[in-house]
Amino acid sequence: MNVITHIAVQHAIIRLLAAIAILASGPSQALADRFADQRRQMVEQQIRARGITDARVLAAMASVPRHLFVPPHLWDVAYRDTPLPIGHDQTISQPYIVALMSQSLAVQPGDRVLEIGTGSGYQAAVLAQMGLSVFSIEIVPQLGRQAKTSLQPLGYDGIHLKIGDGYQGWPEHAPFEAIIVTCAPTRVPEPLKAQLAEGGRMVIPVGKRHFQQLVLLTKKRGRIEQEKIVDVRFVPMVDERGRVY
Fold first, then answer.
1. What global pTM score does this model have?
2. 59 φ, ψ (degrees, to nearest 5)
3. Helix crossing, 95-104 with 122-129: angle to 10°?
4. What does the alpha-carbon distance between residue 151 and residue 197 come to, in Å, rounded to a whole number?
5. How far apart are CA 35 and CA 109, in angstroms?
6. Quick one: which H or E segment has residue 68?
7. Is the pLDDT at 6 greater than 70, yes or no?
8. Are 102 and 130 in contact (CB under 8 A)?
9. pLDDT tens-place string over residues 162-173
10. Which of 15, 16, 141, 214 has its CA 20 to 30 Å from the CA of residue 208?
11. Where are the alpha helices (DSSP H) in the chain?
12. What are phi and psi of 179, to 5 degrees?
């Protein structure tokens, strides 16, 4: 086992033990950990104050323990208004962007959502907490396995995880009422458009590394309508060889 792998295993064990310790205190105390106040402040100061009004988004982000989805040495900064590294040149998005993308989907409980770019699993956990059926794809095998390790002890074992090329989507489970993409291709993948249900919405960052726009796509009568939400900066979408789409 090399040094990098050894460190990754140590981090996974620490996250797992922390999650078990929280759950062991009983369902009513599962999320009443020492970061609860920081989560509430995050929601009020970073999210609600910027115009996020969806009650289910606000409640989910006040509940999901974001610190358990970042490396242990970053726990004390997990609720700050910034993206954070999660290894393998990937990041967890800043809380406001997670909330903005989640609200922009305009989903209803029970809707099927495809997520491209599982990362550490935080966005998937937020969507599941909102009552959605989540199908999530991660191209980096180590991150996919790490996300599963983080999600299951917290009760999110109903999230469907897959390691693979997100550009191709997950046709076996299509169509989806919503699609959320957390990495940026240079153009919207055609397979994802095809897998979006009639009336469905897709939120996706599009563009090159230094010029990206978060856009909302809506399928109406079989046609895709697109509108800009905000300028953003995400990691690029890549294929299994690391080539940028």
1. 0.86
2. -65, -40
3. 50
4. 27
5. 27
6. none
7. no
8. yes
9. 999 999 999 999
10. 141
11. 3-24, 36-41, 55-63, 95-104, 122-129, 141-151, 190-194
12. -135, 130
- Residues forming beta bridges with residue 135, ordered by sequence position: 114, 160
Token pair in block for residue 29: 């105390």
Given 3-state DSSP classes, what are the helix, strand and coil percentages for the chain, each rounded to the nearest 5?
40, 25, 30
Q: Give me 159's structure tokens.
A: 């999230």
The radius of gyration of the chain's CA atoms, rounded to the nearest angstrom, is 17
Compute the mean pLDDT over every residue in the chain, rounded to the nearest whole number: 89
Out of 28, 63, 93, 150, the active site residue is 93
Contact between residue 135 and residue 114 where contact means Cβ atoms under 8 Å apart: yes
The residue assigned the tokens 């029970």 is 110
DSSP-based three-state secondary structure for 116: strand
**Tokens encoding 73:** 């040495």
Question: In this predicted model, what pLDDT tens digit does every residue of 195-205 receive, in sequence order?
Answer: 999 999 999 99
Q: What is the pLDDT of residue 34?
A: 86
| 69 band by pLDDT with thresholds 50, 70 and 90 | very high
Integer Cα distance of 163 and 118 in angstroms: 9
**Annotated catalytic residue 93:** yes
The pLDDT of 14-43, averaged and rounded, is 62
